[in-house]
Amino acid sequence: MLRSHIIPVALFFSIFSLFSCLDEFGDAAQPVEEEQGYLDVDPRLWGYYDIFEAEGKARGLNIDLKTARISGDIDAIDENNVIGTCQYGGFSTNHVTIDNVYWDRSTDLGKEFVVFHELGHCFLNRGHTEDSTSEGLCVSLMRSGNGGCRDAYSTRNRAYYLDELFSQTTN
Ligand SMILES: [Zn+2]
User: Fold this and answer.
1) 61 has pLDDT over 70
2) CB 70 within 8 A of CB 94
3) Chain-centre distance of CA 68, in angstroms?
4) pLDDT-based confidence at 3, cuts 50/70/90?
5) Which among 70, 108, 115, 120 has the fewest CB atoms less than 10 Å away?
6) Could you give the CA distance from residue 116 to residue 128 in angstroms, rounded to a whole number?
7) Does some domain include residue 10?
8) How far is the CA of 88 from the centre of ligand 1 (A)?
9) What is the whole-number distance in angstroms between the Cα of residue 154 and the centre of ligand 1?
10) Do the domain assignments include residue 119?
11) Between 168 and 64, whose confidence is greater?
12) Number of folded domains in the chain?
């Protein structure tokens, strides 16, 4: 009985101190990292965060991933066939993880594909859609990979997919 009382109290205080930290970062004195890149984001992802911002802005969205503070890393994801994840909700910042094996073997476009998909969850608040064209091609970057449609993200189709990505957001 004692335990079950102690734990919620401990959680409350850890949440409280987290909010205190965030408040400090909101002041005028910005950490140096804020100017050079994205705080708590693997530098290999910075270029893709930059392009995501630019492409969203080109489509009329107000996107500032530095303010949004979506942390990101490239690390082993143990779950089979999972190439990226977005952790969201709760009291911490949203967090993108890209699988390191996928990253090392992927082209620039393949890397962009997975980073943009995860930011589609973590920044645009989008869920999955498995819709496909009459030829069986995925209509969205936000396909889960379990729905049966075929990816067609290519240099030629990129503009279409980015139009679709940024056209549906609750952010
Ligand atoms: Zn997803």
Assistant:
1) yes
2) yes
3) 11
4) very low
5) 108
6) 13
7) no
8) 12
9) 19
10) yes
11) 64
12) 1
- Say how many Å lie between the CA of residue 141 and the centre of ligand 1: 9
Is 26 part of any domain?
A: no
Taking the CA atoms of residue 57, residue 58, residue 61 and residue 63 in that order, the dihedral angle to the nearest 10 degrees is -20
Give me ligand 1 centre to Cα 2, in Å. 40
Distance 116 CA to ligand 1 centre (A): 10
Full domain range(s) for residue 103: 35-167
Interval between CA 134 and ligand 1 midpoint (Å): 23
The CA 15 to ligand 1 mean position distance, Å, reads: 27
Distance between Cα 144 and ligand 1 center (Å): 5
- Give residue-wise pLDDT tens across range 80-100: 889 999 998 877 889 999 999
Segment 42-48 shows an average pLDDT of: 97
pLDDT of residue 12: 38
Q: Would residue 8 count as lying in a domain? A: no
DSSP 150: B
Q: In 3D, which of 167, 171, 170 has the Cα closest to residue 59? A: 167
Among residues of the chain, what percentage have pLDDT more than 70?
78
Q: How close is the Cα of 121 to the center of ligand 1, in Å?
A: 7
Distance 101 CA to ligand 1 centre (A): 18
Q: Report the share of the chain in percent with pLDDT over 90.
A: 67
